[in-house]
Predict the 3D structure of the following.
Amino acid sequence: MNKEEYLEKLKNRLENEKINNQEEILNKYENRFDIGYKAGLSDDEIIEMLGPVEEIILNNNVDDKTEYNLDITEVFIEDVYIKNKKGTGIDINLSDELKDYINVTTDNHKIKIRNKSGVFFKKHVGSIEILIGENIKFNEVVINTVKCDYEIEQLDAQSISIATVSGDSNIERMSAKKISLSLVSADVAVRDLKANELIVSTVSGDITCNYVDVEMAKLSTISGDINLTGKIKEKRTSSISGDINIKIIE
């Protein structure tokens, strides 16, 4: 599939689903192709980053979606996986090794995942898998962990805050009005990030975002590297010994 075929398919699906702001959505994705071309990407590579047309339709057809808050704090385990799923609702799966150590509570669409009392300073083998249904959207997402690795397929919210110590993260797509990333001895790689405000602070950790669309970026590093490529309208940077590399693509 090439650019023209992809955009034509998107246009037809937007019309069939009667999505609001069809022209705005089409212009946004046409601009993303232009940004990708300037970065030296092929149609196939750009389409892989943008994702299937069906996924775009789901993300823009939010009238019947249920809003949740997600809070993962004081979790001291090996891995967290956040993925999409077909169908509705949210599934939270704990590996058997964690069931005696992790609490999961849901109250009024607020999901909290915590280590049980007295076990925070002991790391446990195992993983948490969070599967997000097609009818779910997030208001606030907070992730604050130690020595935990993340694999995030897609995360959209009004506000996203991720703080990690000695853990590595791979994020395919992430968007919010405000995104805050705080790293200590951790590495984060993001393929596609969109935010009105992006705040990044790192101490001895590296972050790479290959495709960004940001109104305001506030970047600070003590000894890690920050690498961003994409559209950034305004930026503020501060560095003691780390490098901040920004490749602006208009």
In short: The longest helix spans residues 22-38. Helices lie at 3-17, 22-38, 43-50, 53-60.
